[in-house]
Design brief:
This protein is of the alpha/beta class. It is built from 9 helices and 20 strands.
């Protein structure tokens, strides 16, 4: 039996997530797929003059990729899909080796809005990157991924905390250090273990960006397997859809009428304020340089932005069956009903009527459903990279997202059809009429 198109897409999504436990792995996974489709990586020190076809720039946990059709004018407008590569998790401290009461533990910091109870009693691995001593004093980088049950944050037995089901919050400072062995702390033990997994000498490790991840593989759930369950759906669903759409736009029978762009930023979960975040000038500088590389002037750059359109793609909230009062009574998205268009008049989302019209027209052409989303007015609204991109570039922007449950949890849920719907809509937008 030939698998349904949505199942093929989500099978590929699950493979992408399994290979991408950190933002650096997300970038590596995306770059691998782009290179397979004929894209080539540009360095900041390269000469970009006359570069056409599929191109991308990667920097740590961020990636900007675009496709220049042959003969495209310098003022050709952009069609941008903005996403983010990071997810809330536990990140390893610079001096990680700690412990108490005969247990060896690892010191971690809480990154982003983590529902800490979801990280309890889960088998955790380690992933990220090592900064290593390199030739001529120039550091080099190496990814590391240990998908083994090395660590665990144990729940306190209910016999010792009868109030655990009364909503008592986890002490963020004292009880979050995962255990991984018995005995007194051994300085440098974690570094030696991680360096060995990467095939490197611990003496060559000068720094690291390491984090913990749940090693349970992504999969399907439900009577008819109608749900996807995985870590980091927020926001790897959107990154994967963006990569898929960009590749489809670049390799399809119809050449795009625009310059399709994928912008995958890091550090969205903590405000996007870094050299690779949406508040940085990274996207602006790369796009303006791409215009100049095609012989464009400042006027061409302004024209390219004036005709540009941006889709900020980030996960959205499906209505929760046990907490329906937390949602707007007239806006209750469900899984497999299509991506949501997210609206907030206080500009936590950048959507306006023009953006809605463009997105809905694209959804119609793609044959994909969509759903409106508005937060409950009595509760604070989340945000995404949409307003930041709109403010930075001054382009029309719409916020969209696949609706899911358990957002920011160690294991999230969405509908099996919605990631494919999102990719189809993004492809239509990138290709244009």
């Amino acid at each position: 039996m030939t698998p349904a198109p949505h199942r093929s897409h989500t099978d590929d999504l699950l493979s992408f997530i399994a290979a991408s436990p950190s933002p650096y792995h997300v970038v590596a996974s995306a770059a691998q797929r782009l290179e397979k489709a004929g894209f080539r990586e540009l360095r900041g020190t390269d000469d970009w003059t006359g570069a056409t076809g599929g191109l991308f720039v990667s920097r740590a946990g961020a990636l900007i990729a675009w496709y220049v059709p042959e003969g495209a004018a310098a003022h050709t407008p952009f069609r941008i899909v903005g996403t983010h590569t990071d997810s809330p998790n536990l990140r390893v401290k610079p001096a990680p080796d700690t412990g108490t009461s005969g247990w060896r533990q690892i010191g971690v910091e809480i990154y982003g809005g983590v529902p800490l109870n979801t990280w309890l009693d889960r088998d955790l691995g380690i992933s990220g990157r090592l900064a290593l001593r390199g030739p001529d004093g120039v550091p080099r980088s190496r990814l590391v991924q240990i998908d083994e049950p090395l660590l665990r944050v144990p729940q306190l037995a209910i016999h010792l905390d009868r109030s655990v089901n009364e909503g008592v919050a986890l002490d963020r400072q004292r009880h979050i250090a995962p255990i991984w062995a018995l005995g007194e702390p051994r300085e440098g033990e974690l570094l030696r273990r991680v360096a060995a997994a990467a095939g490197e000498d611990p003496a060559d490790v000068l720094g690291w960006d390491l984090m913990l991840h749940d090693i349970q593989p992504p999969g399907y759930l439900g009577v008819d397997r109608e749900f996807v369950v995985a870590s980091r759906l927020d926001n790897q669903v959107s990154v994967h859809a963006g990569v898929t759409a960009l590749v489809d736009a670049a390799t399809g029978a119809t050449q795009p009428g625009f310059i399709p762009v994928l912008a995958a930023f890091d550090h969205e979960e903590v405000g996007s304020g870094s050299e690779t975040g949406a508040q940085s000038p990274m996207l602006e500088r790369i796009l303006s340089r791409s215009v100049a590389a095609r012989g464009g002037s400042d006027e061409d750059w302004s024209r390219a932005l004036a005709g540009a359109f941006c889709v900020s793609a980030d996960m959205a909230h499906a209505v929760h069956p046990n907490y329906s009062e937390r949602h707007d009574p007239d806006h209750r998205p469900l899984p497999n009903g299509g991506p949501t268009i997210k609206v907030n008049v206080n500009q936590r989302y950048a959507t306006d009527s023009t953006g809605i019209a463009m997105l809905t027209a694209a959804a119609e052409r793609a044959g994909a459903p969509w759903q409106p989303f508005v937060s409950n007015n009595a509760m604070p609204c989340g945000t995404s990279i949409g307003p930041l991109t709109a403010a930075r570039l001054g382009v029309t922007t719409v916020d969209v997202g696949v609706p899911g449950l358990s957002m920011h949890s160690a294991r999230e849920l969405c509908g099996v059809r919605d990631p494919g719907y999102l990719a189809a809509i993004l492809t239509t937008i990138m290709v244009g009429d």
